[in-house]
Design brief:
By secondary structure, the chain is an all-alpha fold. The protein has helices spanning 8-20, 24-33, 39-71, 78-105.
């Protein structure tokens, strides 16, 4: 039951196609032929595949829930509640994959983070603003007597 507003996969597919200036089928074929040629394209295709798989699982879960509700109108037995939880889990999975695709396509994050691990990668040191934070405490001047005499009387 996708409609124009909730077509997450369609919107993100268009964004991927725009980003790489080719249709998703052509992009998938190019990545399959040379997966190491363009890391970002390979990751976009992989994430898109995960997104479409999770969307299919969501649609299947929704269909199962609708069938259960149609056969037992007004009843919410354990099976129906389990199906509703499955739909919620599928929505969460799909939305998580959608967020990963959005992040991957965000021009502000390109080159700053690893799309695979989500951790910072090697950054250009010249892009740093200001000095690095100190990693050790400042040295203390030796003001107390070495023997400890005269400190506490």
């Amino acid at each position: 039951m996708p409609d124009e507003v909730d077509d997450v996969v369609g919107v993100l597919t268009e964004q991927i196609e725009h980003r790489f200036d080719m249709g998703i089928g052509t992009l998938k074929a190019a990545v399959a032929a040379a997966p190491d040629a363009h890391r970002e394209a390979t990751e976009a295709v992989r994430r898109h595949d995960l997104l479409t798989e999770s969307q299919a699982a969501l649609e299947h879960a929704e269909d199962d829930l609708l069938r259960a509700l149609e056969t037992r109108p007004g009843e919410a037995d354990d099976h129906t509640v389990d199906l509703a939880h499955r739909v919620n889990d599928a929505v969460s999975a799909r939305d998580g994959h959608a967020m990963a695709v959005r992040w991957l396509l965000d021009p502000d994050t390109r080159g700053e983070r690893s799309p695979v691990a989500g951790r910072p990668t090697r950054l250009d040191r010249s892009a740093r603003r200001g000095p690095a934070a100190p990693t050790s405490p400042p040295a203390r001047p030796a003001t107390a007597p070495a023997t400890g005499r005269g400190v506490l009387r």
